[in-house]
């Protein structure tokens, strides 16, 4: 039976403002087909009400989806389309998503907890930027090139699709993280099996409508829902040529090990504990404070590239800390579907409890609470955490080393640029970062010394749609975005003429 949407009034537990989305089965070969697994109930992190249900794909179901992708790859027209034709389909997919902006924004705000005022940009415009950037790059991408042979004659170097791609995405930004995988894989001519997180599968189930509207041939994109068992079945399936995963470093280690056993290609975009270095010449104004707040608190702090370590010069520590803490304390916490809300819930109560325990541990270790630190009043039904700022943090504290994935900033003092860089680099992660300064040249010089995949200057933006994004160290392997992102879905073949 196909995916369908029913009204919330059919449930005892409901939010009258929202429909309940029912997607039965898996999206395979261009249609919704039955699965043998149980139903997964998706609940709002803000209220606990039921938002929808999807079907869990078993190991056998995953096999059907992989076979569908393989058939579309080997016998369908997709890989033989010209780069310009594939780019046009990617653009059409972006248009189909954009035409549903309000519906997607409402749904993802409800299932993830993203503030509704932020979702059109943070969840939708970012995904559209990835698709459209990739569509602009693809027509002129060098899929074939001749070069002189060192032994005489010529060599034709072809860049061909890697094959069937398993794309496994997290719950925090489902459309965006799916776009980072789907756009370059489609541009390369690959076929895809997409697995959403069980915490947020509804928006990506709805994506099936956009895939059909864009005219992407049946079987090129398949969607299976499920938890760890479904993901493991997909990663270990012999018909999968490449795995692209975004999620925790712990899960990434297991996926990387599984791919290594079978010599399977893999891209891993993992955790982060990114630093924002504020240099001692900075102008303390609204742009700086807003940028620091956005860098750590966007999407309720649930962004892998969140700049959660704020490094302040000791000579100006209080001057910068006080307005930053005041801005965080003034943020409006509440129902994410309300347009005035700035901070919604974290994904579930287990995450809330883990964040609270980490904050308590930091206080015991000597950190000082200057904003938040408690649960918000009147929101006991949801997984809410007040946006929090901890001052006087040492970089050796657990709160400064572990990825928290919540609305908590730690503030660390430093003396001199060299120490700031050393503290920023003293982490097992290296995903993103920022440098703030009145002198952009000085800031760029400091940025080049940071051991991290991307660094923004005088901005909290962690990536550029047309440029590579990914991490150093335990933040991952490989890059997404730009021409480099397409390259990870291609194999090189040399034909010696």
Automatic annotation (TrEMBL):
Q: Which Gene3D superfamilies does this one have?
A: Aldehyde Dehydrogenase, Chain A, domain 1, Aldehyde Dehydrogenase, Chain A, domain 2
Q: Describe the location of the Aldehyde dehydrogenase domain by residue ranges.
A: 32-495
Q: Which domain of life is it from?
A: Bacteria
User: Where in the sequence is the active site?
Assistant: 269
Q: Where is the signal peptide?
A: none
Q: Name one Pfam family in it.
A: Aldedh
Q: Which CDD domains match?
A: ALDH_AldA-Rv0768
Q: What class of enzyme is it?
A: oxidoreductase
InterPro entries hit by this protein: Ald_DH/histidinol_DH, Ald_DH_C, Ald_DH_CS_GLU, Ald_DH_N, Aldehyde_DH_dom
EC numbers listed for it are 1.2.1.86
User: Which keywords does this Swiss-Prot/TrEMBL entry list?
Assistant: Oxidoreductase
GO molecular function, a single term? geranial dehydrogenase activity
Stated family: Belongs to the aldehyde dehydrogenase family.
Protein name as annotated: Geranial dehydrogenase
């Amino acid at each position: 039976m196909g995916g369908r949407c029913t009204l919330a009034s059919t449930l005892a537990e409901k939010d009258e403002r929202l429909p309940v989305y029912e997607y039965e089965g898996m999206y395979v070969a261009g249609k919704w087909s039955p699965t043998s697994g149980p139903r997964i109930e998706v609940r709002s992190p803000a209220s606990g009400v039921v938002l929808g249900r999807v079907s869990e794909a078993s190991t056998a179901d995953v096999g059907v989806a992989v076979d569908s992708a393989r058939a579309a790859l080997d016998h369908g027209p997709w890989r033989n389309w010209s780069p310009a034709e594939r780019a046009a389909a990617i653009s059409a997919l972006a248009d189909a998503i954009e035409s549903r902006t309000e519906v997607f924004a409402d749904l993802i705000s409800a299932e993830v907890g993203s503030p509704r005022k932020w979702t059109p940009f943070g969840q939708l415009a970012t995904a559209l930027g990835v698709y459209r950037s990739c569509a602009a790059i693809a027509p002129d991408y060098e899929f074939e090139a001749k070069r002189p042979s060192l032994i005489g004659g010529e060599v034709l170097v072809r860049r061909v699709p890697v094959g069937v791609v398993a794309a496994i995405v997290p719950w925090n930004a489902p459309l965006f993280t799916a776009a980072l995988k789907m756009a370059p894989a489609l541009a390369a001519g690959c076929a895809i099996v997409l697995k959403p997180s069980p915490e947020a599968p509804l928006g990506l189930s709805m994506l099936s409508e956009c895939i059909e509207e864009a005219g992407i041939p049946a079987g090129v994109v398949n969607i299976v829902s499920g938890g760890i068992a479904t993901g493991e079945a997909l990663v270990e399936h012999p018909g999968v040529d490449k795995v692209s995963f975004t999620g925790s470093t712990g899960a990434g280690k297991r996926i990387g090990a599984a791919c290594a056993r079978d010599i399977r290609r893999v891209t891993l975009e993992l955790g982060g504990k990114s630093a924002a270095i504020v240099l001692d010449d900075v102008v303390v104004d609204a742009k700086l404070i807003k940028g620091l707040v956005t860098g750590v608190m966007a999407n309720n702090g649930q962004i892998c590239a969140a700049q959660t370590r704020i490094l302040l010069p000791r000579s100006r520590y209080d001057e910068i800390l006080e307005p930053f803490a005041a801005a965080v304390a003034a943020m409006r916490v509440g129902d994410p579907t309300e347009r005035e809300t700035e901070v919604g819930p974290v994904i579930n109560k287990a995450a809330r409890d883990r964040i609270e325990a980490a904050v308590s541990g930091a206080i015991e270790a000597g950190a000082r609470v200057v904003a938040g630190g408690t649960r918000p009043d009147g929101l006991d039904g949801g997984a809410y955490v007040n946006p929090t700022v901890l001052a006087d943090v040492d970089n050796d504290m657990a709160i400064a080393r572990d990825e928290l994935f919540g609305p908590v900033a730690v503030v660390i003092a430093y003396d001199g640029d060299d120490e700031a860089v050393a503290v920023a680099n003293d982490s097992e992660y290296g995903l993103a970062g920022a440098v703030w300064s009145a002198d952009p040249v000085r800031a760029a010089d400091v940025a080049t010394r940071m051991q991290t995949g991307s660094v923004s200057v005088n901005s909290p933006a962690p990536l550029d749609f047309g440029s590579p994004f990914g991490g150093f160290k335990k933040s991952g392997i490989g890059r997404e975005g730009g021409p480099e992102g397409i390259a990870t879905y291609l194999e090189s073949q040399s034909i010696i003429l």
